[in-house]
Model the fold of this input.
Amino acid sequence: MASFSSISKTLRGCLVKRNSNFMPTLSRCMSNVPESSVYGGPQPQNPNQRVTLTNLRQKYKKNESITMVTAYDYPSAVHLDTAGIDICLVGDSASMVVHGHDTTLPITMDEMLVHCRAVARGAKRPLLVGDLPFGTYESSAQQAVDTAVRVLKEGGMDAIKLEGGAPSRITAAKAIVEAGIAVMGHVGLTPQAISVLGGFRPQGRNVDSAVKVVETAMALQEVGCFSVVLECVPAPVAAAATSALKIPTIGIGAGPFCSGQVLVYHDLLGMLQHPHHAKVTPKFCKQYSHVGDIINKALLEYKEEVTNGSFPSLAHSPYKICAKEIDAFTHQLQKSGLGDAASAAADAAQKFVATKSQDE
Done:
C-alpha cells in the first residue's frame, strides 16, 4: 500500500500542473526512459520526410528522375540519407563488394538481415528496399512470402526486390504483393541466374531476348510490382520497356531513357575493386570519386606517423593528470616494487611538459 500511495502522489503531482508543458511532464512521469539518456533508441519516422511509394509515383508522373544507390551498413546509409537519394537498395551485391565473393550467390538471408538492420538505422529518408538473396524464394510462393516478411519485420525494410521473370518468379511476386509487401522487379541481366546465362552477360541484344525483357517487365507490372530494374540491356530496349510500362523503370547499364538510375555504392565512389570487378569492370560503371585512393593515402600516412613516433602528439593525447597525482602515482609504484614503471611514468610526464612548453 505504501508503494501504491507513493506512485499515486507522483501521478497527482504531474496532473496538477496546468500549463503548456502538461503532457510532456505526464509522459516523463509515466516513462521508464531516463530524461537525459545517452541512447534514446530509434526516433519515430517522420512521414513528411520518408520517401514513400506515393512520392515515387508523383515523381514518375512529373517525369522527374528517380535516384537509387546501394548501401550495406550504417555509414553508407547515412551518406545516402544526407545526399537525399530517393531509394536505398540493400543489395545482394554485398556478397561481392562487402564479403569479397565473385558472385552474389553465396550471401545468406541472415547475412542480408544484418546489412538491412544497419542500413535502416542510418537511412531515415530514402525508401528502403531489400534484396531477396539466392535460394530464399525460388522453391514456392509461400517460401517467397515468408522470406519477404522477414526482410520487413527483421530487417526494417519498406519493400523487397526479387530477380527474374520466369513464371515461378512472377507467381512469387504476385503472392508477396498480395501479402501486403511492396515489390520491385528486376529483369535483363539477373546476377543470380549466371548459371543459366553463362556469366554476367548483357541481355536484350537480339529480337527474342529484347521482346522477352519488355514482356517480363510488363508481367511484373501486371502482378503489382511498383517498379522494375532493367540491368545491362541496350538503351532502345530499355526505352521500349519504359514506354510500355506505367510504373518507373530503374536502369543500371541500360542507358538514359529509364525513369531512374541505380549504381553500386562502392563502384560510384571508386572504392578498391572487389574480386569480380578486378577481373572485368562493367563498362557502365562511372566513378564519381576515387575514394579508394584517398583511403590508401590516409592509411599510409597513419602508418608512417606511428612508425616515426609523430602520432599521437600532445594534441591527440587529451587526458591529463596533474603533477601532484603523478608524484603520488610514481610513489605508489615504487612502493609496489615497480621502479621501472614509476620511471616511465615520470619521464612521460616530463616529456609532455616540455612538448607543451615548446608549443606555447
